[in-house]
Amino acid sequence: MSGTTTGAVGLRRRAAGAGANRWVVLVVLCASLLLVAVDATVLHVAVPAVTEDLKPSAIELLWIVDVYPLVCASLLILFGTLGDRVGRRRVLLLGYTLFGVASAMAAVADTAQVLIAARALLGVGGAMIMPATLSILRQVFPDRRERAVAIGVWSAVAAVGAAVGPLLGGFLLEHFWWGSVFLVNIPLMLVSLPVGRILLPESTGAGDGPWDVVGALMAAAGLFGVVLGVKRLGGGEPADSAFTVVPLVLGAALLVLFVRRQRRRKHPLIDLRMFARPAFSTSVGCIVLAMLALVGLELIAAQYLQLVLGLSPLETGLRLLPLTVAAMAAGLLGARMLRRFGPRRMVSAGFCLTAFAVVLLTAMGRHDNPGLLLAGFVLLGFGLETTLFGAYESMLSEAPPEQAGGAAAIGETSYQLGAGIGIALLGSVMNAAYTPGLTSVPGVPASASAAAGHSLGEAYAVADRLGGTAGEALRRAARDCFVHGLHVTLLVSAGLLLMGAAMALRLPRLMHCEVGEVEVPAPREAARPLPTHARP
């Protein structure tokens, strides 16, 4: 064999090895994401056991549940931009370490205060891990076609994690104590740390100028205030309460000052010029609107299944499972759909499909209709994931590689803010449509009607205390009012989704690849086979 031939074979082998390593890196990153996604929901089923063992107050129980997403959302920009400066792998590995230590601390917590502190540290670790996974993915897959496939797998894993959390928590609680839902993280972290150190590449941004510590703290404090205020609104707290208004106002003021500071700095923490790019700003807006329209519906749907239809928690989880399976399928098919239809048509069609599913679900009534729920949840999951996939991919591809950490943090923060605002907004719509129908139920005292207007669960409790025909009348009226409120909320959500479909028309029509790559045609041209070198 000649030297030239031998050299060519070696180059091909090295190229193949590099390609294989990229997908191994994707596996490591997805394992990280799965852990964080599971931990966000695994505690929900353990709340009764935690309450019985630690006997927290109502405020302490609220913080045990909410402190993890609150801290995580607040610190995403801080750690995303820090990774751009000091190294994304370094921040990710530090997040692994902190996540493992906090998990051990939570598992052995003997007081509510210790558990709250441990959950806060878990939020810090999650904020290190989440943007780092996306920004490393952005660097490892420079080819947009391959990156689209990777993001599809990444988003499918996120859907799996959200669904696995309650199931895993329920299994562990049946066989072990409540701390086991945290203890399961430790062996995964012990494996992820050395594997990540060996396999994950290090990458940073341009690193020009000093890191804006003051700006990072302003962003963290501002987001903490805004997310805390939004969560209180979503939890049914009064809108005029000082504990709701003050965090919202201070948080918004800090974020305004943060934006002004970034515009004046020569080397900003986040290059706000990214938002001047229509594809980037539109993608962020689509993420916020999709979550705003839909996250509250999941909570309301769970109440409908359990309180109106009388399903058990396990049966409720099984009814919602098709939504997760459809979301996984959309994530895995996302890259192919993006190549065929382009970002504009894909995201807009995803919004329209989700809106259609939401309108279809308005046919839900007081009686069970499994076929309708199955069809609605499948369309809902597929449409939502199609929308989020197209928006995330467009946002990440539009951001400069040196700003990958900041862009990933912006996307995750948008997701969290949209979810929080959605719970508050749709919860308010639901209450406004539900409460008036209970003011004049025959035979029910005004005080009982007022208490029943807080929620359907409370209405059932009041009806049980009343008993007799009055109690039965209150129960029936509350159920009817809840179904009416659900229909109104679904229609409002559909309107928001159609607004998102219109917004998505600002996205690029084609999937533009990087310099030197082939631009993927729109659907009309997609019938022609791509050149061999352009296929993924």
TrEMBL record:
Residues 25-512 form the Major facilitator superfamily (MFS) profile domain. GO terms for biological process: response to antibiotic. Its main location: membrane. One of its GO terms (cellular component) is plasma membrane. Keywords: Antibiotic resistance, Cell membrane, Membrane, Transmembrane, Transmembrane helix, Transport. The keyword DNA-binding does not apply. GO terms for molecular function: transmembrane transporter activity. Gene3D superfamilies: MFS general substrate transporter like domains, Multidrug resistance protein D. It is found in: Cell membrane. InterPro entries: MFS, MFS_dom, MFS_trans_sf. It is a multi-pass membrane protein. The chain crosses the membrane at residues 23-46, 58-79, 91-109, 115-137, 149-169, 175-199, 211-230, 242-259, 280-305, 317-335, 347-365, 371-392, 482-505. It comes from Streptomyces cadmiisoli. SUPFAM superfamilies: MFS general substrate transporter. This is MFS transporter.
